[in-house]
Specification:
single chain, alpha+beta, two-stranded antiparallel ribbon, 6 strands, 23% helix, 17% strand
Length: 86
């Protein structure tokens, strides 16, 4: 789970008008790197009872997965300047 996902869930747990939250991960190893202490009850995320985000980062596990820059493809534009592919 990504830190940004945890942050979103912590904020949304405080909001009563949220319908759903979709959480994605781009690698199963992320759950080994970031340990979330978030709980659900009856399909609702519960507010955490401690300061912070309720997450721990395992730095030794994170070192096993060094950062790799994504390759961003150059946008292709039509003659009128509109984006053809992105």
């Amino acid at each position: 789970m990504r830190i940004t996902d945890i942050r979103t869930l912590v904020v949304y747990a405080q909001m009563r008008n949220r319908v759903f939250v979709k959480v994605e991960t781009d690698g199963p190893w992320r759950f080994d790197v970031v340990k979330a202490h978030l709980e659900t009850k009856e399909c609702y995320w519960l507010p955490i009872g401690e300061p912070g985000l309720g997450a721990e980062i395992d730095e030794a596990e994170a070192r096993k997965h060094p950062f790799e820059q994504e390759v961003f493809h150059q946008n292709v534009f039509h003659a009128d300047g509109s984006v053809a592919e992105w």
